[in-house]
TrEMBL record:
It comes from the Bacteria. GO terms for cellular component: endomembrane system. Pfam families: PEMT. The keyword Repressor does not apply. This is RemK protein. It is a multi-pass membrane protein. GO terms for molecular function: transferase activity. Keywords: Membrane, Transmembrane, Transmembrane helix. It comes from Mycolicibacterium smegmatis (strain MKD8) (Mycobacterium smegmatis). It is found in: Endomembrane system. Its main location: membrane. Gene3D superfamilies: 1.20.120.1630. The chain crosses the membrane at residues 47-71, 96-114.
Length: 174
């Protein structure tokens, strides 16, 4: 392992501080306080809610793992602790600028759907609103300063929230 590489514990801490807090710890606390229950699998509606929630959670988890691996291998950084050294322009980042948030949204929505909890739907809506404000106000100005023209080109071609159908092909300079 080189000095430039982040240690595995920094990745673990980053995942625990951000995605796990937003998708596991806070929803679990909300569910406990509001007495949210698992779906009733003896009904068709319960099965449908559980299945739809499981699909959303699985999609979210796979995207989250993919983006964390890209941050490590391509960006040479971690999530919350230490920004990437290089701008990540591969995989889902060629379709949408915030696939990691898409992953978190899928997991949160999957949990709300699976339990049909209005409280967890509320948490999902609150988190989406806060993220929709924070990304353009905090994250994007930081990325502009850090990566300059490379980020500006990326920003012009790749949408923030709604994925492109075709992947963006950065110029060879990127």
């Amino acid at each position: 392992m080189t000095e430039q590489r982040r240690l595995w514990w920094r990745h673990l801490l980053s995942v625990l501080l951000a995605p796990a807090m937003m998708t596991v710890f806070i929803p679990s606390a909300i569910a406990a306080v509001t007495d949210t229950r698992a779906p009733d699998l003896s009904t068709a509606g319960g099965w449908l809610a559980a299945a739809a929630g499981a699909v959303l959670i699985a999609i979210g988890l796979s995207f989250l793992v993919w983006t964390v691996v890209l941050f490590d291998r391509v960006g040479e950084g971690t999530l919350a602790i230490g920004s990437p050294v290089h701008l990540v322009l591969r995989g889902p980042y060629r379709h949408v600028r915030n696939p990691m948030m898409t992953a978190v949204f899928c997991i949160q929505l999957g949990t709300a759907v699976a339990t049909m909890s209005p409280w967890l739907f509320g948490w999902f809506a609150l988190f989406c609103t806060a993220t929709a404000i924070a990304i353009p106000v905090v994250e994007e100005p930081h990325l502009r300063r850090r990566f300059g023209a490379e980020y500006e080109a990326y920003r012009r071609h790749v949408p923030r929230w709604i994925p492109r159908v075709t992947p963006w092909e950065p110029s060879p300079a990127h």
